């Protein structure tokens, strides 16, 4: 099995001495360190990123292979990023380039159990969880975006009769039958390229492509995906998401990195910065 990570900083991301940027680096290193320890000899870890960002982490020897992302796609450069991250669109491109079974993990998704990782490797399709669009936090996102896009781009087959009950959270995404994801994202990417001028006007567009349209395409097949959990957290894995910026979670994340990969923790301290509220061992 191939484990992939896709990370590219936004144009307005702060440098690595930023407190909020640093926690993403710490989480990425923690997540990869866990996979590196739990994976079998036949598995490999591939990192998709810019050469500059990979250069920050290369001394840690975390990855088996690096694939460069050149951040010059004319369609992507014109997107709005007030909310969504470029990772979303580059994850689509990475999925299209995959030619073997893989599991992609977001940098803020951590697996804590080797047996659970082995279980995920056996799934035909694996995703994080369902995001039900009736939930108050999600109501202002996908459905309004879908309705506005449908009003501007009429009768495109990928939009007609789209499911509006839930979307697939892809903080973890992949499986043995990865070709279903690849085929879906090829259709979604073609739709994006054909209509990028209109689509780039919508701030939630990347999430719409990555999760909303993926769900509509995946459920045209007979395969029932495996979802890691339907609650926020289990003892087997966690998607930290926006909670990673809260002091109590930052302390937890740093403590876990100290336990998992103390050399990486020391490297980060020496090279990226120090923040006294959470960059120390909290007893």
What does this structure look like?
There is one protein chain. The mean pLDDT is 87. This protein is α/β, with parallel strands linked by helices and 283 residues long. It is built from eleven helices and nine strands. It is globular, with a radius of gyration of 19 Å. Helix content is 42%, strand content 16%. The longest helix is centred in the N-terminal third of the chain and has 20 residues, at 19-38. Helix 2 links the parallel strand 2 (44-49) and strand 3 (65-68). The protein has one domain (2-129, 168-195, 223-271): Spore Coat Polysaccharide Biosynthesis Protein SpsA, Chain A. It has helices at residues 19-38, 51-57, 74-77, 86-97, 114-121, 142-152, 179-194, 196-199, 205-218, 247-260, 262-271, and strands spanning 2-6, 44-49, 65-68, 102-105, 109-111, 126-132, 166-175, 226-227, 237-239. It has a seven-stranded mixed beta sheet, sandwiched between helices.
